[in-house]
Amino acid sequence: MTVSFWRRLLFGLILLSLICFNYTPEAAANSIGKVERVVLVIVDRVNVDDYAGPGLTNIKNLAKRGAVGLLNNNTGAGIYPEHTYPTIGGGAHLVGVGEAFNGFNENEKVVDALAADEFIRRTGIKPPPGSVLQLAIGELIRTNKALPYPAVPGELGEALHQAGLKTAIIGNADTVDVHRRLATTITMDSRGLTDMGNVQESILAHEPTALGALRTKFDKVEEEFNLFRKKGAALIVIETGDITRIYEEKDKATDEAYAKQRSKSLAEIDKFVGQLAKQMDFSREMLMVVHPTPTDEAIKENKNLTPIIAVGPGFTPGALLTSGTTKRDGIVMNTDIAPTILKSLGLKAPVQMSGRPFLVSPLKLTENSLTYLQNLNQKLLVTYKARPPLQSAYVLLQIAVLFVALYGIFFKRHIAEVVKPFLLVVMAVPLAELLLPLIPQNNVAVTAILLIIVTLIIAGLAVVVNRKLGLDPFIFICVATAGVILGDVFNGSYLQKQSLLGYDPIVGARFYGIGNEYMGVLIGSVIVGTTAAIQYWPKWRKTLIVVSGLLYLLTIYAMAAPNLGTNVGGTIAIIAALLVTFLLLMGVRFKLRTVFMVMALVLVALISFIAFDLSRPPDLRSHIGTTASLILSSGPDQALQIIQRKWEMNMKLLRYTVWSRVLLMSIAMLALLFYRPRGVMEKIRIKYPFLFKGFIGVVTGALVAFTFNDSGVVAAATTMIFGAPPLAYLVLSEQTD
User: Fold this and answer.
1) Which of 45, 427, 690, 735 has the greatest CB tally within 10 Å of its CB?
2) Nearest residue to 44 via CA among 245, 244, 213
3) Distances (CA, A) of 10 to 13, 14, 127, 383, 543
């Protein structure tokens, strides 16, 4: 291959990078304003359903004065208070410890000594007078050092202290025999110190007839709040406590008594929040109402997301929250809270924080923002519940169809015409799942029925178009699938956000761009669709190869562009797969030198996208830019940890996910067909040379996707949806002929 050819290829990738540099997203979210003080009101164990009733009027009114969202409460372990609280304070997914319940004012007595003395025993640090101490700081640090990513307990408080700002904590969730002072993990610094606060019993009133026997004295809380304001606290966290107290004691009570006391406490907290809001100056202060942990009952129903409200400069009344982490209208992460607090106080978030500051979504609502969130949550729940059974059914269908196809190839050739439509059905499912969000669904059964109907329509159209127009069914299904995916990406991934094969904000593994499932589908469909078109329209072959090359560049851009949500492993896989396919279409014979040139071009393209993302403001960077920034600041060890984590996840998925069965079945089918029936693959290579080259590209994409993705098993399996079934279809067609 001439040097000029490689130069043209390199020029194409550079041109793609320049386009990426000059492309501006359609609508940018609005940034928040700067304030003198942030007040965080914690009301734990509250769910979205609590906002559906007539209560919480003051808190709901705050939603009209500020922006609201649904909060993903994932942590480094489960969704439990001992993990959710330190996660907020660390700005990363931390793991908590039970000992972290033990936060004390420095003058409180702990067993046989003052808390200050116990703190000195554990840390060697003499606490300042009036400070609040987190006695589990040592255990928290050790526990989170073991995580395969940066997670620093007390990072929020540390950043504030480094800037000379003060933190304060008020309240607790104690019961008579148990301390529950996890909120100290939000305000503490890396030494376990909060500047000022009141977490002791003086903030509580004894109420013998109530669950937990204690209640928060909200008049005392207001008094302390105003005191700490005067002392210049930049961050004040208020633990309301009562709902947690009642929840922890609910098993001792009747359901009626629990419900009545919970309702009463919610009303008292709502009244307090209303009073607090009246005292605040929202031109200079920010208020957030946060529910860190849903109830266990809600989690069992997959209602993991909780409401969050933010009021203050920049938070447009009645608008939705979003962030650079999620890029989803109305959805933010708990790791975003700490960076938001820091930004509102004019500070930069440390690189160890994985979250990003809140932004205000530009989406214009036609309904109340809380109503919108409740409807959004319901849609997410339907998709979340439907995904496991329907995906498992799809995997079983693929395996069954491929097995029957093999049986027909080896033993019963006369069943070819029966099997071939089912192979088209297998290929049509990803497109059907992508289109499904356009149709209203309110339960899993309806979703299943609609999926079957839409899939059959797509497969039926492919057959009809083939018979009436002579258009190969591969071309119809693959081009339609790739076209809808690309159109959806440039439209903000509206369909993928709600698709069964897309990503899920309840799980929170990915929120935007192309997920690993559709990354594989896109690789397979665009390669098979273009090579099939080149194969079946010989008169337009040269033109179609050029058009395919341009389409490949557009596809790479859609996968890699930071403003669309870069998928790093997907970028590597798609560049490798499309480049190999294009070179084969151009007649390049692969030698060792060619392989190295392909690897070099992939590396150049990836570095270009990373450099562009790093040039953008931290709040707007995608995952690839944030990861690169972390590696640059932390050193190569961080890169090795990321690689190790991704590989371990791949091995885990290979053992447990249903997609591994499809991948293994597809690989087994390809291996068998290369040897038996004898000569059939050679016939296909000779009769369909361009489509055969496409199959090589698909296999390349699957192998690279498996290697470079943390869920590479899934990506490789979805890529092979357009590898094994089409190949089986061609073999059956050849045997029939």
Assistant:
1) 427
2) 244
3) 5, 6, 61, 42, 21
Q: Provide the Cα torsion 478, 480, 486, 488; round to 10°.
A: -140
Cα dist. 410→415, 536, 664, 666, 685 in Å? 11, 27, 19, 16, 19
Q: Are 57 and 65 in contact (CB under 8 A)?
A: no
pLDDT range class, residue 324, cuts 50, 70, 90: confident
The Cα–Cα gap between 481 and 724 comes to: 17
Q: Say whether pLDDT at 21 is over 50.
A: no
List of residues 6+ apart from 430 with CB closer than 8 A? 481, 501, 517, 518, 521, 525, 718, 721
Residues in Cβ contact with 141 at an 8 Å cutoff, skipping those fewer than 6 apart: 153, 190
From start to end of 584-667, where are the E strands?
Answer: none
484: how many CB neighbours lie within 10 A of its CB?
Answer: 17
Pairing outcome for strands 30-31 and 358-360:
antiparallel
Query: Which CB contacts under 8 angstroms, 24+ apart, belong to 8-13?
Result: 9/579, 9/601, 10/601, 10/604, 12/549, 12/553, 13/601, 13/604, 13/605, 13/608
Q: How do beta strands 103-105 and 67-72 pair?
A: unpaired
How far apart are alpha carbons 13 and 249 in whole angstroms? Answer: 62
Amino acid at 542: K
Structure tokens at 680: 């059939």
Give the CA distances from residue 152 to residues 139, 167, 190, 673, in Å, rounded to whole numbers and listed in that order: 12, 17, 8, 53
Which residue in 334, 363, 396, 274 sits closest to 661, CA to CA? 396
Spatial separation of the C-alpha atoms in residues 409 and 449, rounded to whole Å: 31
φ/ψ of 226, rounded to 5, equals: -65, -35
Sort strands 331-333 and 321-323 into parallel, antiparallel or unpaired: unpaired
pLDDT of 208-229, one tens digit each? 999 989 999 999 999 999 999 9
Q: What are the backbone angles phi and psi of residue 215, rounded to the nearest 5°?
A: -140, 150
If you ran DSSP here, which 8-state letter would residue 345 be given? T
Q: Which range is most confident: 116-120, 322-326, 558-562?
A: 116-120
| Structure tokens belonging to residue 728 | 């089986």
Distance CA 36, CA 636 (A): 38
Peptide bond into 677 cis (omega under 30): yes
Give the residue carrying structure tokens 């151009």. 586
Q: What is the pLDDT of residues 92-122, one digit of tens each?
A: 999 999 999 999 999 999 888 899 999 999 9
Query: Which distant-in-sequence residues (6+ apart) come within 8 Å of 690 by Cβ?
Result: 531, 532, 534, 535, 541, 585
Residue 548 has pLDDT above 70, yes or no: yes
Distance CA 378, CA 262 (A): 24
CA atoms of 97 and 76, how far apart (whole Å): 12
Q: Quick check: helix, strand or coil at residue 268?
A: helix
CA distance 382 to 447: 8
Q: Cβ contacts of residue 271 below 8 Å, gap of 6+? A: 58, 218
Q: Buried (b) or exposed (e) across 511-532, using 16+ Cβ within 10 A?
A: bbbbbbbbbbbbbbbbbbbbbb
Short-list 359, 528, 501, 354, CA closest to 429: 501
Answer yes or no: are the C-beta atoms of 618 and 348 closer than 8 Å.
yes
* Least confidently predicted of 103-117, 480-494, 562-576, 614-628: 614-628
Q: What is the pLDDT of residues 337-387, one digit of tens each?
A: 999 999 999 999 998 899 999 999 999 898 899 999 999 999 999 999 999
* Residue 129: CB atoms within 10 Å: 8
Return d(Cα 67, Cα 308) in angstroms, integer: 9
Q: Which two tokens stand for residue 441?
A: 């669904």
pTM above 0.90, yes or no: no
Cross-strand partners of 166: 233
